[in-house]
Amino acid sequence: MALTFEWCGTCTDLELNQLHAEAFATPPTPDAGRNWTDLLNAHSLGWVVARDGDALVGFVNVIWDGLAHAWLQDTMVARRSRGHGIGQRLVAMARDQARDAGCQWLHADYGEHLKAFYEVACGFSPTNAGLFALT
Ligand SMILES: CC(C)(COP(=O)(O)OP(=O)(O)OC[C@H]1O[C@@H](n2cnc3c(N)ncnc32)[C@H](O)[C@@H]1OP(=O)(O)O)[C@@H](O)C(=O)NCCC(=O)NCCS
Question: What is the mean predicted confidence (pLDDT) over 64-88?
């Protein structure tokens, strides 16, 4: 694999919608119409793009409070490219960039089945967190 990782790399909405639909099994609409370009530019500290040659194989979004806290959102690797350390490298670059931006804490929430990925491979500490369904 000719892998590259780029902070705030360029992606089309089509590429990201396709990767997101594959990673999270989202229905074709309304998620397939997400305008990633506008959302990322308005709400993110940055994001990491992984490509194998020209093909988008991984992505993670880093949103933040503008100060001390940053959060990972939509960590995703194309199914055919999983198990090669791409997810780990996406998260490592996101962590380094958040630190360089002056953040003190990087948050991630995940299901039980991804504890090995986030806590063993990526180094997150388990913590208490809450979730309130608004809809
Ligand atoms: C989670 C995800 C990003 C991991 O990407 P990846 O490139 O396959 O991960 P890595 O190769 O860097 O994995 C590093 C280690 O984490 C662990 N790991 C990775 N994915 C795992 C999974 N699905 N279940 C359990 N452990 C996992 C393994 O220990 C792995 O090391 P190994 O391959 O030597 O066993 C990818 O599976 C994905 O896109 N899943 C669908 C979307 C999703 O659920 N994202 C997370 C939202 S919270």
Answer: 98
Euclidean distance between CA atoms 29 and 74, whole angstroms:
17
What pLDDT, in 10s, does the model give residues 83-114?
Answer: 999 999 999 999 999 999 999 999 999 999 99
Distance from the alpha carbon of residue 114 to the mean position of ligand 1, in angstroms: 7
Q: Which of 48, 82, 89, 120 to mutate to test the pocket of ligand 1 (most atoms within 8 A of CB)?
A: 82
Which residues lie below 8 Å from residue 40, measured CB to CB, with a gap of 6+? Answer: 47, 61
User: Could you tell me the distance, in angstroms and rounded to a whole number, from the CA of residue 46 to the centre of ligand 1?
Assistant: 21
Residues with CB under 6 A from ligand 1: 23-24, 75-77, 82-88, 110, 113-114, 116-117, 120-121
CA-CA distance, 98 to 84, in Å (whole number)?
A: 24
